Structures are given as structure tokens and as C-alpha cells.
Amino acid sequence: MTELLRTTDPVRLSWLVALLADAGIDAIVLDSYTSILEGSIGAIPRRLMVDTDDAAQAVRILREAGEA
Predict the structure, then answer these.
(1) Strands across the sheet with 46-50, in order?
(2) pTM of the model as a whole
(3) Phi-psi region of 65 (alpha: psi -120 to 50; beta: other; left: phi over 0)
(4) Residue 21 neighbours by CB distance under 10 Å
(5) pLDDT tens by residue, 45-63
(6) Which residues on neighbouring strands pair with residue 12, listed in sequence order?
(7) What CATH code is assigned to 2-64?
(8) Where, if anywhere, are coiled coils annotated (predicted)?
(9) ∠ CA 25-27-19, rounded to 5°
(10) Whole-angstrom Cα distance, residue 1 to residue 9?
(11) Alpha carbon distance 37, 55 (integer Å)
């Protein structure tokens, strides 16, 4: 797995996961559970991860969308 980015913005994460899914890339968000457990302060960033084989294409897609 390769980390693409970290953010505390759940809306941005949702957008990026949808953007990657549209390109046929499966992405997962890690640390959601920990972030929820810590409360709504948003102090713990969530990580957007993709398979290592898809990382180069995913980075290109995020750059083209102005998100990387």
C-alpha cells in the first residue's frame, strides 16, 4: 500500500476516493476509526491509501485534478 495524502477533511477524502474509483483505482481510508474515537476535534488526519501498483496512476490523477 502507498499513502497518497493525509487530511482531516472527510469531504475531500470522499471526493478523492470517488475520483480514483472513477479511474478504476481502489482506494481506502485509514485511521477513520481512531479519528472518530478521539472526538470531533479533527486532530487525527486520515490517510488515503492505494495499492502500490496503482500509485503512479493515482498520483497523476490527483495532480490533474489539482489535489496533489
Answers:
(1) 2-7, 46-50, 27-30
(2) 0.83
(3) alpha
(4) 11
(5) 899 999 999 999 999 999 9
(6) none
(7) 3.30.70.790
(8) none
(9) 60
(10) 21
(11) 29
What span, in angstroms and rounded, lies between the C-alpha atoms of 26 and 54? 9
φ and ψ at residue 38, rounded to 5 degrees: -75, -5
**3-state DSSP helix/strand/coil % of the chain, to nearest 5:** 45, 20, 30
Residue with cell 493525509: 6
C-alpha cell at 28: 481506502
Structural domain boundaries in the chain: 2-64
24-37: per-residue pLDDT in tens? 999 999 987 765 66
Q: How many CB atoms lie within 10 A of CB 67?
A: 15
CA distance 40 to 18: 24
Q: What is the mean pLDDT of residues 1-21?
A: 94
Torsion of CA 47, 22, 63, 67, to 10 degrees: -50
